[in-house]
């Protein structure tokens, strides 16, 4: 699967976002090592702490179906600009795809790609649990 195809799937997932408070829709598509793709969108809640980001929705959906290793994730936002994963999402990405790619898309600027370790250079890992 190409990065562009992954972005298209993330845009499709964004349409399902539940964002009545921020009006900021986000979609994500994560590529498992075996080629399967899982999508997710952000799901807001009146109690903001209960909100779940698109990236975590996609990863958690995949994990709940037995997947643990991923190669890449594409993230898009209704603003049309880049929407970099939040800190919690970066930590979750580091758990399941520390060497993976994060593809961000902007309607005007195009795609940019980062490695998870670039976005979270000192992430907490199993090595830190003693």
Can you put this structure into words, describing what you see?
The chain has 130 residues and is α+β, with helices and mostly antiparallel strands. A five-stranded mixed sheet has the order 2-1-3-4-5. A hairpin with a 4-residue loop joins strand 1 and strand 2. The chain is globular, with a radius of gyration of 14 Å. The termini are far apart.
List the topology elements.
Blueprint: H1 3-14, E1 26-32, E2 37-41, H2 54-63, E3 70-77, H3 87-96, E4 101-106, E5 110-115, H4 116-119
Parallel strand pairs: 3-4
Antiparallel strand pairs: 1-2, 1-3, 4-5
Characterize this entry briefly:
By secondary structure, the chain is α+β, with helices and mostly antiparallel strands.
Which key phrases capture this entry?
130 residues, alpha+beta, Cytidine Deaminase, domain 2, five-stranded mixed β-sheet, 4 helices, 28% helix
